[in-house]
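ok trying this again, last paste got cut off
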Amino acid sequence: MNGSTTCPLRDPVLWPHTLSSGPESGLTNQIYALVGYVIITVDSGCSGLVLPNFTSHDRGGVDVPFAALFQVRPFVNALAAQGVAVYERLSPQDDYTRPRVIAGWHKHLNFIKKRALLEGVHPFQRFEDAVYKSLHVSRQIREKLEQAKVTAGLKQEQGYGCMHARVEIDIRGSWREVYAGPPPTLAQYFRGMSQFAELRKQKQVFVATGKALARHDDEMLSRPTDWGAELVRSTGPLKAWHRSDGKGNLSKPSYIVASLVDMMICREARWFVGWCGSTFARMLAHYHAVDHGRGWFSVCPESTQQSTLQDLHAKWSLCSDPRDGDPTGVESQHAIAEAFSVVKARKTELRRIGHEKKLRAQANGQHVNTSQPM
């Protein structure tokens, strides 16, 4: 049964396709989709959820089993405590329903929009919290994580800070689609950070960022900060390009593994600095709140401020967007809702076109590959 987000009695188990959100299928957006499928399981009366695969996001979209990234048992136990049964695989006797390919991501999107309208409170918040808290990395990822720390030269006994620098070249053309205002430059990150004694105290700062950097940004990250902190990054085989050539070269490092390693290094840092328009930064802000009971530092082009998880839950943008002169982010929320409505309508149209194409092919007696989502 394909395309349904309901669980009638004859199809009691929700079995999602590979975690994806279309073009936005990096690590955090896939975790968002996972949260969405948990909410669908609860909201629509499914009797359980089959663990979906992640996708590498590079290498032509290679499937990555959940267990390759995260431990299964903590996730299963945490969701069971919230009344959600999770199965590692589908049994032959199980009936199931297949939700739409990006249904989980859209469900989470609706969740965060409604949470903002409810001033940061949502009755399903406990499910998102349970997912985040239960994502303990696998042994293989832990080994890569420790290797990355050694390679980067992190002095863990002294502690280190983490800054997620969303300054890769692609953001120059895509920030308007995020509805959080323009991202800060590296100079603005450092200028804002220099204002806080707590941040200046750490002698090392791990910088989570991609490989596609402008030369001047790459050079700036190769020098100490003005207050003398050493900047370190994960390098070599533990880094991957955001997009691949689509040829499925399995010898290349996986982008999702590289992202997860950087995220875990930042999760264990003494403090975290990031930009609200990045889902990677937003998730790390969540982790610093639930793991350590502390806030984070929100960097905007115009200022840097200490922020809380509640701030992120209450509104999307914490920065002023010069396009609408809206420093509170309220108008940006309406813009986000409008933009997502357009995207949803377009995807509905694409599904209709795909369905018609399938029917025409069947009428002509052609073989139709139904293993790929429309």
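PB: full thing came through this time. The chain has a mean pLDDT of 83.
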